[in-house]
Amino acid sequence: MKDVDGNKGRVIILQKRIDVAQRRGTRQDTLRVNRRSMRDDKLCTKRNIQPSEELQDLWRTYDDLASRDPDLQLSAAIHFRKLLAQEYNTPIQTMIDLGIVPRLIQLLKFSSSPDIQREVAWALTNIASGTHQQTLLILEQGALSIFIQRLASTSEQAVKSQIVWAIGNIAGDSVQFRDLALEAGAMEPLLSYTRTCIIQSLHSDLAGAAWTISNLCRGRPSPDFTITSKTIPILATLLQTQEETLVDTCWAISYLSDGDDVAIKTLIDAGIVNAIVHLMNHPTGVIPMICTRTAGNMMSGSEEYFTQVFLDAGVLDPLKTILATSGHKEIKEALFALSNITAGTVSQIQRVLDAGLFPNLIKILSYKKIELVTEAVWTISNALKTGSKEQIESIVELGCIPALCRTLDIDKQPMKLVQVILEALGNLKLMNDTWGQQIRMLTVDTLERVQSDPNYTSLTDHLYFLAEPLDECDWIDVSL
Q1: Which of 131, 159, 252, 420 has the fewest CB within 10 Å, making it most exposed?
Q2: Cα 460 to Cα 471: distance, rounded to the nearest angstrom
Q3: CB-count burial class (<10 Å; 0-12, 13-18, 19+) for 251
Q4: Three-state helix/strand/coil letters over 47-87
Q5: Nearest residue to 410 (alpha-carbon basis) of 361, 451, 450, 437
Q6: CB 382 within 8 A of CB 420
Q7: Span 379-405, mean pLDDT?
Q8: Containing H/E element for 96?
């Protein structure tokens, strides 16, 4: 069955204060594209069961499937299900060409045998784990509406469980099929099924439910939030469950957090913030990374209190741990979260200073991973723009000027990174002539090299502004 794993522009101006909501929003859009492109390489991996059986006597078995004898129907359904569950060279197209799909759908709709219903649903689930065209075929045959009807009507847990996997496969294939499932009404019976699993502590079935919910919440453009918002109370409950369910639950919440202020406020009102912060300290797996991403997404909203509720929940402690001990993927997410905090209020920046995080941020400027350097530059730059004079002086005393100047010396930097560094250094030069002299001394060779690079001709005024004494730069327009 298809598996969702843990991987499925700011305006630059030389002024101290900026529009916080705009910085957060445009920064969020830039990262969203990159994250989504990383995850899309793995999100449509298909889940299949692994038993293997040689292809044989297909036409005879097909005749049994089409017979009126329930025993023959069941035997044939099991046979085809096993063939479709082979790990390698799964004969999905062979089964389609044989014409079994319409018959499987008929049996799912009309058979009164729970065993037959389960087996044919399982076989259809594995067909839906094929290519986009193979999944489309079972939709064109009307399978989706039958799945939803059965999920809503049957009392057989085993049948429901298999249908949930089938709907997850369909939704996980593409945004188009996700929306078809939502429009067909898949969410309501799925949530009812999930509530039953919670009440009865059916942990293995909850894993499938959480995975299917995550597929129905995933993708761009985002699904209809009036539908997906109904998952939030259940997802809040599932945050207290076993790790296998927890991973997909966290992914679903992460997808929902990657939305507008309404989505963020709904999540906050559901009381998930403390759980998300707690899970940022989770000892295993991808859960800390997912939850750190969720925190960053939610703090990127335009309301100051979105950030404040995370600060009050103690988010800086796990962020500091991640910066010091985790891999670069986790560090990147932590830096994104911190960049949204330092784009906030003076009091919020002070919390970051008091937590002792700026030495970590300045250290990261020396890392070889350019994506980490970029995130650290944004985080420091935000604080230098929105912080108070005293806060900026404290950050400078920690050594941010030499660190930013060295970062500017990296070869073949992205243009955006160069712009942000030049803006930060330019602001510091405007604030304090001593800082300006230090910047000129540390960047003279680099500025000469960059000025001669045709890739940076659009930054000529900014480069000249840093290279010359302040009293000779009054005529320069350094707005980008």
Answers
A1: 131
A2: 18
A3: buried
A4: CCCCCCCCCCCHHHHHHHHCCCCHHHHHHHHHHHHHHHCCC
A5: 450
A6: no
A7: 96
A8: helix 92-98
Residue for token pair 């949204």: 340
- Give the chain's largest Cα–Cα span: 96
In the Cβ-directed half-sphere of 72, how many Cα atoms lie within 13 Å?
10
DSSP at 301: S
Q: Is the dihedral of CA 253, 258, 262, 265 positive or negative?
A: positive
Distances (CA, A) of 141 to 75, 84, 105, 216: 23, 18, 8, 21
Question: C-alpha angle 4/8/198, rounded to 5°?
Answer: 35
Return the bridge partners of 45, or none. 3
CA distance 373 to 392: 20
Q: Which residue do the tokens 């797996």 mark?
A: 285
* 102 prior amide bond cis, ω within 30: no
* Burial class for 349, CB neighbours closer than 10 Å (0-12, 13-18, 19+): buried
List, as one string, the DSSP characters of 312-360. Answer: HTTTHHHHHHHHHHS-HHHHHHHHHHHHHHHTS-HHHHHHHHHTT-HHH
Model pLDDT for residues 74-97, shown as the tens digit of each residue = 999 999 999 999 888 889 999 999
d(CA 381, CA 363): 15
Q: By the 8 A CB rule, do 164 and 193 touch? A: yes
> In this structure, which amino acid lies at residue 299?
M
Do residues 302 and 261 touch, judged by C-beta distance below 8 A? yes
175 and 220 Cβ atoms separated by less than 8 Å = yes
Question: What is the C-alpha radius of gyration for the chain, rounded to an integer number of angstroms?
Answer: 28
pLDDT at position 251 over 50:
yes
HSE-CB at 286 with a 13 A cutoff on CA atoms is 17
| 3-state secondary structure labels for all residues of 375-391 | HHHHHHHHHHHHCCHHH
Q: Which two tokens stand for residue 103?
A: 């018959």
CA dist 125 and 167 (Å) reads: 8
The CA dihedral of 234, 235, 236, 238, to the nearest 10 degrees, is 90
Q: Could you tell me which residues come within 8 angstroms of residue 437 by beta carbon, excluding any fewer than 6 positions away?
A: none
Average pLDDT, the chain: 85
Q: pTM (2 decimals)?
A: 0.85
Picking from 82, 88, 87, 157, the residue whose alpha carbon sits closest to that of residue 117 is 157
| DSSP H helix total and E strand total for the chain | 29, 0
C-alpha dist (Å) from residue 411 to 366, 417, 439, 447: 13, 12, 19, 12
